[in-house]
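lol ok so funny story. i was supposed to be doing the assay writeup but got distracted and ended up predicting the structure for this chain instead. priorities right. anyway since i did it might as well share w the group, maybe its usefull for someone
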Amino acid sequence: MVQISNPQLKSKGRVVIDVADLDPKAVYRMVLSGPAGFVPLDRDPERGKTSTQLRFELATAPTGAYQLVALERDGDDEIEVAERAFHLLGASDPVVNDPPATRVQLDRTRTVPTEDQVLTDEILRVTSARSFPEYQDFVDAALLRETGGAFSPQAYDVIIRATREFLELDTTDIIDVGGRFLVNGALPYLNNVASRFRDVRGGLESTERVSDIDETLLTAPAPVELIWSYWNEEAGVPQALNHILARFQNRRLPGGIEPLARFSLSYLRPLRNLLFTWGDREIDRLTVRRRAAEYQYEYGLDLIGRAVPDSARYVERRSRFLESFHTLLHEALVFYRLDDDTTVVANAFPVLNALRDTHLVLAEGAENQFDGVPLQSRIEILAMQYILAQSEMRDFLGGRPMVPYEEAWMDRVDTMRSLYGWGDTSVTHFHELAVHGEALVMSVRWGDWNAIGLKADSAANWARLMRDAVQRYVHAYRSVTGVDLQLGVDATMPAVLLARRNRTRARA
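and the output, tada:
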Protein backbone atom coordinates (compact mmCIF):
# COMPACT_ATOMS: atom_id res chain seq x y z
CA MET A 1 0.00 0.00 0.00
CA VAL A 2 1.40 3.39 -1.03
CA GLN A 3 2.30 5.56 1.97
CA ILE A 4 2.35 9.39 1.86
CA SER A 5 4.24 11.08 4.71
CA ASN A 6 3.28 14.22 6.58
CA PRO A 7 4.19 17.35 4.56
CA GLN A 8 7.31 19.17 5.76
CA LEU A 9 7.76 22.92 5.34
CA LYS A 10 11.24 23.86 4.14
CA SER A 11 12.68 27.31 3.47
CA LYS A 12 10.99 29.90 1.23
CA GLY A 13 7.62 28.18 1.13
CA ARG A 14 8.83 24.86 -0.26
CA VAL A 15 6.78 21.90 0.93
CA VAL A 16 8.37 18.44 0.74
CA ILE A 17 6.33 15.21 0.84
CA ASP A 18 7.83 11.70 0.85
CA VAL A 19 5.98 8.86 -0.92
CA ALA A 20 6.97 5.25 -0.15
CA ASP A 21 5.98 1.66 -0.97
CA LEU A 22 5.59 2.35 -4.68
CA ASP A 23 5.39 -0.60 -7.06
CA PRO A 24 8.50 -0.28 -9.30
CA LYS A 25 6.56 -1.85 -12.19
CA ALA A 26 3.64 0.56 -11.98
CA VAL A 27 3.19 4.06 -13.40
CA TYR A 28 1.97 6.77 -11.03
CA ARG A 29 0.76 10.35 -11.18
CA MET A 30 0.69 12.62 -8.11
CA VAL A 31 -1.84 15.45 -8.08
CA LEU A 32 -1.90 18.25 -5.49
CA SER A 33 -5.23 20.09 -5.43
CA GLY A 34 -6.33 22.98 -3.25
CA PRO A 35 -8.95 25.71 -2.73
CA ALA A 36 -10.64 27.75 -5.42
CA GLY A 37 -8.11 29.70 -7.47
CA PHE A 38 -5.33 27.13 -7.02
CA VAL A 39 -4.28 25.34 -10.21
CA PRO A 40 -3.68 21.62 -9.44
CA LEU A 41 -0.04 20.56 -9.63
CA ASP A 42 0.98 17.26 -11.27
CA ARG A 43 4.11 15.21 -10.57
CA ASP A 44 5.09 11.95 -12.29
CA PRO A 45 7.48 9.91 -10.10
CA GLU A 46 10.31 8.18 -11.91
CA ARG A 47 9.34 4.63 -12.85
CA GLY A 48 11.25 1.74 -11.31
CA LYS A 49 11.65 3.28 -7.85
CA THR A 50 9.89 2.28 -4.63
CA SER A 51 10.00 5.76 -3.10
CA THR A 52 10.16 9.37 -4.21
CA GLN A 53 10.26 12.87 -2.76
CA LEU A 54 7.88 15.51 -4.08
CA ARG A 55 8.60 19.24 -3.85
CA PHE A 56 5.96 21.92 -4.25
CA GLU A 57 6.55 25.67 -4.24
CA LEU A 58 3.64 27.03 -2.20
CA ALA A 59 5.01 30.38 -1.01
CA THR A 60 2.27 32.30 -2.83
CA ALA A 61 -0.45 29.61 -2.64
CA PRO A 62 -3.80 30.62 -1.12
CA THR A 63 -4.83 29.63 2.40
CA GLY A 64 -7.07 26.55 2.57
CA ALA A 65 -7.35 22.77 2.53
CA TYR A 66 -5.04 20.82 0.22
CA GLN A 67 -4.94 17.16 -0.81
CA LEU A 68 -2.21 15.09 -2.45
CA VAL A 69 -3.59 12.07 -4.32
CA ALA A 70 -1.50 9.20 -5.70
CA LEU A 71 -3.02 7.74 -8.90
CA GLU A 72 -1.87 4.46 -10.43
CA ARG A 73 -2.30 4.18 -14.19
CA ASP A 74 -4.05 1.04 -15.42
CA GLY A 75 -4.31 1.32 -19.19
CA ASP A 76 -6.49 4.33 -19.91
CA ASP A 77 -7.81 4.45 -16.33
CA GLU A 78 -6.31 5.87 -13.15
CA ILE A 79 -6.93 4.31 -9.72
CA GLU A 80 -6.52 6.29 -6.51
CA VAL A 81 -4.15 4.34 -4.23
CA ALA A 82 -3.35 6.88 -1.48
CA GLU A 83 -4.12 10.38 -0.31
CA ARG A 84 -2.87 12.90 2.26
CA ALA A 85 -4.77 16.01 3.29
CA PHE A 86 -3.39 19.06 5.09
CA HIS A 87 -4.15 22.73 5.70
CA LEU A 88 -1.96 25.52 4.38
CA LEU A 89 -1.78 28.97 5.92
CA GLY A 90 -0.58 31.29 3.17
CA ALA A 91 1.67 34.29 3.69
CA SER A 92 -1.20 36.73 3.06
CA ASP A 93 -4.63 37.11 4.60
CA PRO A 94 -7.57 35.57 2.73
CA VAL A 95 -9.67 38.03 0.78
CA VAL A 96 -12.85 39.09 2.59
CA ASN A 97 -15.55 40.55 0.42
CA ASP A 98 -17.92 43.01 2.06
CA PRO A 99 -21.62 42.68 1.18
CA PRO A 100 -22.49 44.87 -1.82
CA ALA A 101 -23.70 48.30 -0.71
CA THR A 102 -26.70 48.21 -3.06
CA ARG A 103 -28.42 45.30 -1.32
CA VAL A 104 -31.32 46.30 0.90
CA GLN A 105 -32.10 43.03 2.72
CA LEU A 106 -30.67 42.26 6.12
CA ASP A 107 -27.51 40.13 5.96
CA ARG A 108 -25.91 37.86 8.51
CA THR A 109 -23.07 39.43 10.49
CA ARG A 110 -19.85 39.21 8.50
CA THR A 111 -17.34 36.59 9.63
CA VAL A 112 -13.94 38.01 10.58
CA PRO A 113 -11.27 35.40 9.66
CA THR A 114 -8.88 34.31 12.42
CA GLU A 115 -5.75 32.20 12.07
CA ASP A 116 -6.90 29.60 14.61
CA GLN A 117 -9.74 28.51 12.29
CA VAL A 118 -7.27 26.20 10.57
CA LEU A 119 -6.99 23.98 13.68
CA THR A 120 -10.76 23.55 13.96
CA ASP A 121 -10.96 22.74 10.25
CA GLU A 122 -8.23 20.12 10.58
CA ILE A 123 -9.83 18.48 13.62
CA LEU A 124 -13.17 18.24 11.80
CA ARG A 125 -11.43 16.74 8.78
CA VAL A 126 -9.50 14.14 10.78
CA THR A 127 -12.41 13.03 12.96
CA SER A 128 -14.78 12.73 9.99
CA ALA A 129 -12.20 10.82 7.91
CA ARG A 130 -12.19 7.83 10.29
CA SER A 131 -15.29 6.12 8.94
CA PHE A 132 -15.95 2.53 9.99
CA PRO A 133 -16.27 1.17 6.42
CA GLU A 134 -12.77 2.47 5.61
CA TYR A 135 -11.45 1.01 8.86
CA GLN A 136 -13.08 -2.36 8.14
CA ASP A 137 -11.56 -2.47 4.66
CA PHE A 138 -8.15 -1.57 6.11
CA VAL A 139 -8.25 -4.42 8.66
CA ASP A 140 -9.66 -6.86 6.09
CA ALA A 141 -6.70 -6.10 3.82
CA ALA A 142 -4.25 -6.63 6.71
CA LEU A 143 -5.82 -10.02 7.53
CA LEU A 144 -5.71 -11.09 3.88
CA ARG A 145 -1.96 -10.41 3.81
CA GLU A 146 -1.50 -12.68 6.86
CA THR A 147 -0.80 -16.35 6.21
CA GLY A 148 -4.05 -18.11 7.00
CA GLY A 149 -6.01 -14.84 6.97
CA ALA A 150 -8.71 -14.64 9.64
CA PHE A 151 -7.99 -18.29 10.54
CA SER A 152 -4.40 -17.45 11.52
CA PRO A 153 -3.35 -17.90 15.19
CA GLN A 154 -1.95 -14.35 14.84
CA ALA A 155 -5.30 -12.84 13.77
CA TYR A 156 -5.70 -10.92 17.05
CA ASP A 157 -2.26 -9.31 16.75
CA VAL A 158 -2.95 -8.38 13.11
CA ILE A 159 -6.26 -6.69 13.99
CA ILE A 160 -4.75 -4.69 16.89
CA ARG A 161 -1.70 -3.66 14.84
CA ALA A 162 -3.80 -2.67 11.82
CA THR A 163 -6.15 -0.64 14.05
CA ARG A 164 -3.23 1.33 15.46
CA GLU A 165 -1.87 1.96 11.97
CA PHE A 166 -5.31 3.13 10.79
CA LEU A 167 -5.59 5.67 13.61
CA GLU A 168 -2.10 6.97 12.86
CA LEU A 169 -2.80 7.40 9.13
CA ASP A 170 -4.53 10.75 9.53
CA THR A 171 -3.36 13.37 12.01
CA THR A 172 -3.65 17.14 11.99
CA ASP A 173 -1.33 18.54 9.30
CA ILE A 174 -0.92 22.33 9.22
CA ILE A 175 1.60 23.98 6.89
CA ASP A 176 2.11 27.59 8.02
CA VAL A 177 4.06 29.30 5.23
CA GLY A 178 3.76 32.81 6.67
CA GLY A 179 4.22 31.88 10.35
CA ARG A 180 0.82 33.34 11.20
CA PHE A 181 -0.47 30.58 13.50
CA LEU A 182 2.15 28.02 14.52
CA VAL A 183 4.79 29.16 17.02
CA ASN A 184 8.24 27.60 16.56
CA GLY A 185 6.51 25.05 14.33
CA ALA A 186 4.19 23.94 17.16
CA LEU A 187 0.57 24.57 18.11
CA PRO A 188 0.46 27.79 20.19
CA TYR A 189 -1.00 26.04 23.26
CA LEU A 190 1.64 23.29 23.23
CA ASN A 191 4.45 25.76 22.53
CA ASN A 192 3.30 27.77 25.57
CA VAL A 193 3.51 24.65 27.73
CA ALA A 194 6.87 23.56 26.31
CA SER A 195 8.39 27.05 26.69
CA ARG A 196 8.22 26.64 30.48
CA PHE A 197 10.73 23.77 30.23
CA ARG A 198 13.64 25.61 28.67
CA ASP A 199 16.06 23.49 30.71
CA VAL A 200 15.17 20.37 28.71
CA ARG A 201 13.72 21.45 25.37
CA GLY A 202 16.65 21.26 22.95
CA GLY A 203 19.13 22.10 25.71
CA LEU A 204 20.46 18.70 26.70
CA GLU A 205 23.69 16.90 25.95
CA SER A 206 23.43 13.97 23.54
CA THR A 207 23.73 11.49 26.42
CA GLU A 208 20.66 13.05 28.10
CA ARG A 209 18.30 13.10 25.11
CA VAL A 210 16.04 10.48 26.67
CA SER A 211 14.79 13.23 29.00
CA ASP A 212 14.07 15.74 26.24
CA ILE A 213 10.64 16.88 25.01
CA ASP A 214 9.22 14.95 22.05
CA GLU A 215 9.10 17.66 19.37
CA THR A 216 6.81 15.59 17.12
CA LEU A 217 4.02 15.78 19.71
CA LEU A 218 4.08 19.59 19.53
CA THR A 219 2.75 19.54 15.95
CA ALA A 220 0.84 16.22 15.91
CA PRO A 221 -0.67 15.81 19.40
CA ALA A 222 -2.76 12.88 20.65
CA PRO A 223 -4.96 11.77 17.73
CA VAL A 224 -7.96 10.58 19.78
CA GLU A 225 -10.12 11.61 22.75
CA LEU A 226 -11.19 9.30 25.56
CA ILE A 227 -14.76 10.64 25.43
CA TRP A 228 -15.25 8.54 22.27
CA SER A 229 -14.53 5.40 24.32
CA TYR A 230 -16.76 6.61 27.17
CA TRP A 231 -19.88 6.89 25.02
CA ASN A 232 -19.20 3.54 23.36
CA GLU A 233 -18.85 2.09 26.86
CA GLU A 234 -22.21 3.53 27.85
CA ALA A 235 -23.69 2.13 24.63
CA GLY A 236 -22.62 -1.34 25.75
CA VAL A 237 -20.02 -2.21 23.09
CA PRO A 238 -17.47 -3.81 25.48
CA GLN A 239 -20.25 -5.45 27.54
CA ALA A 240 -21.84 -6.92 24.40
CA LEU A 241 -18.63 -8.61 23.28
CA ASN A 242 -17.84 -9.76 26.84
CA HIS A 243 -21.22 -11.51 27.07
CA ILE A 244 -20.75 -13.11 23.65
CA LEU A 245 -17.26 -14.24 24.61
CA ALA A 246 -18.56 -15.77 27.86
CA ARG A 247 -21.18 -17.75 25.93
CA PHE A 248 -18.52 -18.77 23.39
CA GLN A 249 -16.43 -20.13 26.30
CA ASN A 250 -19.49 -21.88 27.80
CA ARG A 251 -19.56 -19.65 30.89
CA ARG A 252 -22.82 -18.49 32.48
CA LEU A 253 -22.72 -14.92 33.74
CA PRO A 254 -24.65 -13.80 36.85
CA GLY A 255 -28.28 -12.92 36.18
CA GLY A 256 -30.22 -16.12 35.62
CA ILE A 257 -31.16 -17.56 32.22
CA GLU A 258 -28.59 -16.94 29.50
CA PRO A 259 -30.26 -15.13 26.54
CA LEU A 260 -27.53 -16.45 24.23
CA ALA A 261 -28.15 -20.11 25.12
CA ARG A 262 -28.51 -21.09 21.46
CA PHE A 263 -25.49 -19.12 20.23
CA SER A 264 -23.32 -21.51 18.17
CA LEU A 265 -20.53 -20.69 15.71
CA SER A 266 -19.48 -22.85 12.77
CA TYR A 267 -16.09 -24.58 12.88
CA LEU A 268 -15.74 -23.81 9.16
CA ARG A 269 -16.00 -20.00 9.47
CA PRO A 270 -13.46 -17.53 10.88
CA LEU A 271 -15.46 -15.84 13.67
CA ARG A 272 -14.79 -18.72 16.08
CA ASN A 273 -11.02 -18.15 15.58
CA LEU A 274 -11.34 -14.39 16.09
CA LEU A 275 -13.23 -14.94 19.37
CA PHE A 276 -10.78 -17.62 20.51
CA THR A 277 -7.73 -15.39 19.97
CA TRP A 278 -9.64 -12.46 21.51
CA GLY A 279 -10.31 -14.44 24.69
CA ASP A 280 -6.80 -15.84 24.77
CA ARG A 281 -5.29 -12.32 24.94
CA GLU A 282 -7.64 -10.88 27.54
CA ILE A 283 -4.78 -10.26 29.97
CA ASP A 284 -3.19 -7.83 27.48
CA ARG A 285 -6.21 -5.50 27.31
CA LEU A 286 -7.35 -2.63 29.50
CA THR A 287 -9.82 -3.56 32.24
CA VAL A 288 -13.06 -1.69 32.83
CA ARG A 289 -11.61 -0.55 36.17
CA ARG A 290 -8.69 1.10 34.44
CA ARG A 291 -10.87 2.80 31.85
CA ALA A 292 -13.29 3.96 34.56
CA ALA A 293 -10.43 5.50 36.55
CA GLU A 294 -9.24 7.43 33.49
CA TYR A 295 -12.78 8.64 32.67
CA GLN A 296 -12.80 10.14 36.16
CA TYR A 297 -9.31 11.62 35.84
CA GLU A 298 -9.86 13.31 32.47
CA TYR A 299 -13.57 14.18 32.56
CA GLY A 300 -14.93 13.29 36.01
CA LEU A 301 -17.44 10.97 34.30
CA ASP A 302 -18.85 8.01 36.25
CA LEU A 303 -19.57 4.47 35.16
CA ILE A 304 -22.15 2.44 37.07
CA GLY A 305 -21.75 -1.32 37.31
CA ARG A 306 -20.60 -4.26 39.39
CA ALA A 307 -17.09 -4.17 37.90
CA VAL A 308 -16.59 -0.45 38.62
CA PRO A 309 -14.94 0.45 41.94
CA ASP A 310 -16.45 2.94 44.37
CA SER A 311 -15.65 6.56 43.52
CA ALA A 312 -13.98 7.01 46.92
CA ARG A 313 -11.07 4.92 45.63
CA TYR A 314 -10.07 7.55 43.04
CA VAL A 315 -7.33 9.99 43.99
CA GLU A 316 -8.44 12.75 41.62
CA ARG A 317 -11.44 13.47 39.43
CA ARG A 318 -12.28 16.35 37.07
CA SER A 319 -15.49 17.39 38.83
CA ARG A 320 -15.92 20.66 36.88
CA PHE A 321 -15.68 19.26 33.36
CA LEU A 322 -19.32 18.34 32.84
CA GLU A 323 -20.60 21.72 34.07
CA SER A 324 -18.10 23.71 31.98
CA PHE A 325 -18.63 21.56 28.85
CA HIS A 326 -22.41 21.79 29.07
CA THR A 327 -22.12 25.54 29.68
CA LEU A 328 -20.10 25.78 26.47
CA LEU A 329 -22.75 23.87 24.51
CA HIS A 330 -25.55 25.99 25.98
CA GLU A 331 -23.76 29.29 25.24
CA ALA A 332 -23.09 28.09 21.68
CA LEU A 333 -26.81 27.40 21.21
CA VAL A 334 -27.65 30.87 22.54
CA PHE A 335 -25.11 32.35 20.10
CA TYR A 336 -26.70 30.49 17.16
CA ARG A 337 -30.12 31.93 17.94
CA LEU A 338 -28.73 35.45 18.04
CA ASP A 339 -26.48 34.90 15.01
CA ASP A 340 -29.47 33.79 12.95
CA ASP A 341 -31.28 37.01 13.82
CA THR A 342 -30.11 39.48 11.17
CA THR A 343 -31.32 42.46 13.21
CA VAL A 344 -28.66 41.99 15.92
CA VAL A 345 -24.92 41.43 16.17
CA ALA A 346 -24.42 38.24 18.19
CA ASN A 347 -21.97 38.53 21.08
CA ALA A 348 -19.55 35.58 21.11
CA PHE A 349 -17.77 36.58 24.34
CA PRO A 350 -19.82 34.19 26.53
CA VAL A 351 -18.73 31.38 24.17
CA LEU A 352 -15.10 32.50 24.53
CA ASN A 353 -15.36 32.45 28.33
CA ALA A 354 -16.88 28.96 28.22
CA LEU A 355 -14.13 27.80 25.85
CA ARG A 356 -11.49 29.14 28.23
CA ASP A 357 -13.04 27.42 31.26
CA THR A 358 -13.41 24.06 29.50
CA HIS A 359 -9.89 24.29 28.06
CA LEU A 360 -8.39 24.82 31.52
CA VAL A 361 -10.30 21.85 32.98
CA LEU A 362 -9.21 19.60 30.11
CA ALA A 363 -5.60 20.74 30.46
CA GLU A 364 -5.56 19.64 34.10
CA GLY A 365 -6.46 16.09 33.03
CA ALA A 366 -3.87 15.83 30.23
CA GLU A 367 -1.29 14.12 32.43
CA ASN A 368 -0.13 10.69 33.63
CA GLN A 369 -1.95 8.10 31.46
CA PHE A 370 -3.21 10.72 29.00
CA ASP A 371 -2.48 9.61 25.42
CA GLY A 372 -1.78 6.05 26.61
CA VAL A 373 -5.20 4.94 27.86
CA PRO A 374 -7.25 6.93 25.29
CA LEU A 375 -5.32 5.47 22.34
CA GLN A 376 -5.26 1.91 23.70
CA SER A 377 -8.95 1.94 24.62
CA ARG A 378 -9.80 3.37 21.17
CA ILE A 379 -7.83 0.55 19.51
CA GLU A 380 -9.53 -2.13 21.60
CA ILE A 381 -13.10 -0.81 21.20
CA LEU A 382 -12.62 -0.34 17.44
CA ALA A 383 -11.42 -3.96 17.29
CA MET A 384 -14.53 -5.00 19.25
CA GLN A 385 -16.70 -3.22 16.69
CA TYR A 386 -14.82 -5.01 13.91
CA ILE A 387 -15.54 -8.43 15.44
CA LEU A 388 -19.18 -7.52 16.09
CA ALA A 389 -19.51 -6.42 12.45
CA GLN A 390 -18.67 -9.88 11.09
CA SER A 391 -21.51 -11.30 8.99
CA GLU A 392 -21.55 -14.53 11.02
CA MET A 393 -22.36 -12.49 14.13
CA ARG A 394 -25.48 -11.16 12.41
CA ASP A 395 -26.53 -14.70 11.47
CA PHE A 396 -26.78 -15.74 15.12
CA LEU A 397 -27.77 -12.49 16.84
CA GLY A 398 -30.24 -11.31 14.25
CA GLY A 399 -31.38 -7.70 14.37
CA ARG A 400 -33.82 -5.28 12.77
CA PRO A 401 -33.12 -5.39 9.00
CA MET A 402 -35.13 -2.25 8.17
CA VAL A 403 -33.41 0.10 10.63
CA PRO A 404 -30.91 2.34 8.75
CA TYR A 405 -27.81 1.82 10.88
CA GLU A 406 -24.77 3.81 9.76
CA GLU A 407 -22.17 1.15 10.66
CA ALA A 408 -22.24 -2.64 10.44
CA TRP A 409 -21.71 -3.36 14.16
CA MET A 410 -24.60 -1.25 15.44
CA ASP A 411 -27.51 -3.65 15.00
CA ARG A 412 -25.57 -6.32 16.92
CA VAL A 413 -25.16 -4.00 19.91
CA ASP A 414 -28.80 -2.96 19.82
CA THR A 415 -29.79 -6.64 19.81
CA MET A 416 -27.64 -7.26 22.91
CA ARG A 417 -29.10 -4.17 24.61
CA SER A 418 -32.59 -5.55 24.01
CA LEU A 419 -31.73 -9.10 25.13
CA TYR A 420 -30.13 -7.98 28.41
CA GLY A 421 -32.38 -5.01 29.18
CA TRP A 422 -29.70 -2.32 28.92
CA GLY A 423 -32.16 0.26 27.58
CA ASP A 424 -34.23 0.93 24.50
CA THR A 425 -32.34 3.96 23.17
CA SER A 426 -30.77 3.24 19.79
CA VAL A 427 -26.99 2.85 19.72
CA THR A 428 -27.04 5.40 16.88
CA HIS A 429 -27.46 8.20 19.44
CA PHE A 430 -24.51 6.94 21.50
CA HIS A 431 -22.45 6.83 18.29
CA GLU A 432 -23.36 10.47 17.58
CA LEU A 433 -22.24 11.45 21.08
CA ALA A 434 -18.94 9.61 20.60
CA VAL A 435 -18.09 11.06 17.18
CA HIS A 436 -19.21 14.67 17.73
CA GLY A 437 -18.10 14.70 21.36
CA GLU A 438 -14.58 13.78 20.27
CA ALA A 439 -14.44 16.58 17.68
CA LEU A 440 -15.74 19.14 20.19
CA VAL A 441 -13.40 18.14 23.01
CA MET A 442 -10.35 17.93 20.73
CA SER A 443 -11.00 21.42 19.35
CA VAL A 444 -11.24 22.83 22.87
CA ARG A 445 -8.25 20.91 24.23
CA TRP A 446 -5.72 21.85 21.53
CA GLY A 447 -6.82 25.41 20.87
CA ASP A 448 -4.96 28.21 22.66
CA TRP A 449 -8.15 29.43 24.32
CA ASN A 450 -6.41 30.82 27.39
CA ALA A 451 -4.29 33.29 25.41
CA ILE A 452 -4.52 36.80 26.82
CA GLY A 453 -4.97 38.54 23.47
CA LEU A 454 -7.64 36.22 22.11
CA LYS A 455 -10.76 38.01 20.83
CA ALA A 456 -14.38 36.99 20.57
CA ASP A 457 -13.98 36.62 16.78
CA SER A 458 -12.07 33.36 17.37
CA ALA A 459 -14.92 32.02 19.52
CA ALA A 460 -17.49 33.07 16.92
CA ASN A 461 -15.58 31.24 14.18
CA TRP A 462 -15.25 28.14 16.38
CA ALA A 463 -19.00 28.17 17.08
CA ARG A 464 -19.92 28.55 13.42
CA LEU A 465 -17.54 25.80 12.29
CA MET A 466 -18.71 23.49 15.07
CA ARG A 467 -22.42 24.26 14.67
CA ASP A 468 -23.32 20.88 13.19
CA ALA A 469 -21.32 19.01 15.85
CA VAL A 470 -22.82 21.05 18.71
CA GLN A 471 -26.42 20.67 17.60
CA ARG A 472 -26.12 16.96 16.82
CA TYR A 473 -24.41 16.30 20.16
CA VAL A 474 -27.12 18.18 22.06
CA HIS A 475 -29.88 16.29 20.24
CA ALA A 476 -28.23 12.92 20.87
CA TYR A 477 -27.67 13.81 24.54
CA ARG A 478 -31.38 14.54 24.95
CA SER A 479 -32.28 11.24 23.24
CA VAL A 480 -29.93 9.27 25.51
CA THR A 481 -30.38 11.01 28.88
CA GLY A 482 -33.62 13.00 28.55
CA VAL A 483 -31.81 16.28 29.36
CA ASP A 484 -32.23 19.17 26.91
CA LEU A 485 -29.19 21.46 27.10
CA GLN A 486 -31.03 24.14 25.12
CA LEU A 487 -33.10 24.86 28.22
CA GLY A 488 -30.16 25.24 30.59
CA VAL A 489 -27.02 23.67 32.04
CA ASP A 490 -27.44 20.29 33.74
CA ALA A 491 -24.34 18.74 35.33
CA THR A 492 -25.99 15.49 36.46
CA MET A 493 -23.80 12.51 35.58
CA PRO A 494 -24.92 10.78 32.34
CA ALA A 495 -24.53 7.38 34.04
CA VAL A 496 -27.00 8.46 36.74
CA LEU A 497 -29.48 9.71 34.15
CA LEU A 498 -29.15 6.48 32.15
CA ALA A 499 -29.71 4.33 35.25
CA ARG A 500 -32.73 6.43 36.20
CA ARG A 501 -34.30 6.05 32.75
CA ASN A 502 -33.62 2.31 32.77
CA ARG A 503 -35.36 1.89 36.17
CA THR A 504 -38.34 3.89 34.92
CA ARG A 505 -38.52 1.73 31.80
CA ALA A 506 -38.29 -1.49 33.85
CA ARG A 507 -41.13 -0.39 36.15
CA ALA A 508 -43.29 0.50 33.15
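The chain has a mean pLDDT of 89. The two ends are 55 Å apart (CA to CA).
back to the writeup now i swear
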